[in-house]
Structures are given as structure tokens and as C-alpha cells.
Specification:
The chain has 259 residues and is α+β, with helices and mostly antiparallel strands. The protein has two domains: 11-110, 3-Layer(aba) Sandwich (Glutaredoxin), CATH 3.40.30.10; 121-251, Glutathione S-transferase Yfyf (Class Pi), Chain A, domain 2 (Up-down Bundle), CATH 1.20.1050. It is 47% helix and 10% strand. It contains nine helices and five strands, in the order ββαβαββααααααα. The chain has helices at residues 43-55, 71-76, 100-110, 121-146, 150-170, 184-202, 212-222, 225-228, 235-245; strands at residues 11-13, 34-38, 59-63, 84-89, 92-98. The chain has a five-stranded mixed sheet. Helix 1 packs across helix 6 (184-202) and helix 4 (121-146) packs parallel to helix 6 (184-202). It is globular. The two termini are 29 Å apart. 37% of the residues are buried. The structure holds glutathione. Glutathione binds next to helix 3.
């Protein structure tokens, strides 16, 4: 996914200060333990931000302009992508993790609190499968965003409706993917479903016309504090600006449904 627009600046989210000899001093609060290298619109970054918030972990966000990548980022990111998670280590350089699924599992394993993946190995493997499925939907959303003509746009609209119909068949009665406890699959689908808050304002796309459970899940996710806090306040404005830049068919008045 290539995001190449303005990024805004970094922010600290309850960054945990370092303690040395049990004493916290101004000189010891400059470096956070965890830094999430981010882009304001990236859904993969959002997954990690949601997991961090669910775990109550303090971290710093450092935004990168993907159109003008700073040299430190080029040096640290093997695939040239966000997110990265920088983990401070005593007496050593920061460790750098890449790939959102890896970052999320590392956070789940190392941060205190309830695990976000099932304890049972078979169920855990199934959830990892649905996490991959969430990534595949992101690829389809990307194609919808960059569609500039009616055939491409309507084909994507249908593909997305089919993908969510598949999700509808495996969803629990709610409120979350697997029932009463928020988990990693929820963290992955929250950014997927967030796109449609903006798309809804633009077109009657009908992607969720036959998926009432997905719709209910979507609304529950949109109200979750960890999900709300995973993007900057101007997220919707930035996404609309991106669609304008790409000449997206979604912005056209006739982008409603067509069978
Ligand atoms: N598989 C990666 C995908 C990350 C990704 O596609 N990030 C995008 C932004 S949302 C990116 O950095 N794109 C820059 C590029 O491809 O040049 C993950 O899960 O972390």
C-alpha cells in the first residue's frame, strides 16, 4: 500500500518514562520504551496502536512522510513500510520490529494484561487466519479507493460485499469477533471498518446491505476508546484529501449502487 501524502508530527501517548535507580528525573524521560513509527492513515499502524491502548502501554508515535522518507527510516525499515516498533534496550541500540502482525503479537506477549489471542492453539491458529483475511480486505479497499472508473469501482464494491458476507458467517453474536472479549481480530478489523465511516458520506455503496452482524460489530468497534484513539483527529479529512488526489470514483455523484 503506497501512501504518499502529508503526515503531521509525532505525539506521545502516555509514554512511560525511564526510571534509573528508582528515581525519575527530567533527563530520564526523554526516551520512551516503545516508539511506533507511524503514518496517520495507515491501517496497519492502527492495529498496533489499538493493541498498545488495549494493553494500557505507554508509547510514542513518530510519523513518517512516506513521500519523503527520512534516511533514518530507510535504514531501519527493511521493506520501507510502516509500522515499525522501536523497543528501547538498556545498554544496547533500540530493537526494531517490522510487520504489524509480528509487532502486535510481540506486544501481546510482553505487555501486561489479558492476552488478545486465544490460549487454545487451534483457535489461535484460526484467529491468525482471520487476521490474514483482514489484510486481504485492506488490499481490496485500496483498489476501491484508487478506482477511477465505474467498472473498477463497482467490481470492488461487489468484492468487498462478498468478503464481508464471508466474515458474517463466522462472526459471533457479539459484541466482538469471538464473543464477549475484545481480541486481536477486533484490533485488525477496526481499521478495516473505519474506512467505511468516510465512504458512507460519499456514496451509497451498499457493501453491508446483507451483513447485519458485521454492521453491529462495526458500530461496536467505532465506539471502543482504543479504536477511536488510534488515529489523529483529522483522519477523515486526510482520507478525503487522499481520495481527491487520486481522482477516486467514490467521490463522484453517481458512485451509488448499480446492480
Ligand atoms: N504487511 C505490512 C503492510 C504495511 C504497509 O503496507 N504499510 C504501508 C502504509 S499503510 C506502507 O508503509 N507503504 C509504503 C510503501 O509501500 O512504499 C504490515 O502488516 O505491516
Amino acid at each position: 500500500m503506497k501512501l504518499d501524502y502529508d503526515t503531521g508530527s509525532g505525539s506521545r501517548t502516555d509514554a512511560r518514562p525511564r526510571h534509573e535507580d528508582g528515581v525519575m528525573t527530567p533527563s530520564t524521560i526523554e526516551a520512551p520504551t516503545l516508539t511506533l513509527v507511524s503514518h496517520p492513515l495507515c491501517p496497519y499502524v492502527q492495529r498496533a496502536a489499538i493493541v498498545l491502548a488495549e494493553k494500557g502501554a505507554g508509547f510514542e508515535k513518530r510519523y513518517v512522510d512516506l513521500a519523503k522518507r527520512p534516511s533514518w527510516f530507510e535504514a531501519l525499515s527493511p521493506l520501507g513500510k510502516v509500522p515499525l516498533l522501536m523497543v528501547a534496550r538498556d545498554g544496547a541500540d533500540d530493537a526494531v520490529l517490522f510487520e504489524s502482525a509480528v509487532i502486535c503479537e510481540y506486544l501481546d506477549e510482553t505487555q501486561p494484561g489479558r492476552t488478545l489471542l486465544p490460549r487454545d492453539a487451534l483457535e489461535r491458529a484460526q484467529h491468525r487466519g482471520w487476521i490474514e483475511f483482514g489484510s486481504s480486505i485492506l488490499a481490496e479497499i485500496w483498489k476501491l479507493e484508487i478506482a477511477t472508473d465505474a467498472p473498477a469501482y463497482h467490481a470492488q464494491r461487489k468484492t468487498l460485499a462478498e468478503r464481508f458476507a464471508t466474515v458474517e458467517r463466522v462472526l459471533s453474536a457479539g459484541p466482538w469477533f469471538a464473543g464477549r472479549e475484545f481480541g486481536m481480530v477486533d484490533a485488525v478489523f477496526a481499521p478495516v471498518l473505519r474506512y467505511f465511516d468516510v465512504f458512507d458520506e460519499l456514496a451509497d455503496h451498499q457493501v453491508f446491505a446483507d451483513t447485519p452482524r458485521v454492521s453491529a460489530w462495526r458500530h461496536a468497534l467505532a465506539a471502543r476508546p482504543s479504536v477511536i484513539g488510534a488515529v489523529p483527529a483529522d483522519y477523515a479529512q486526510r482520507l478525503r484529501a487522499f481520495l481527491h488526489e487520486r481522482g477516486a470514483y467514490l467521490l463522484r455523484e453517481d458512485a451509488g449502487t448499480r446492480t
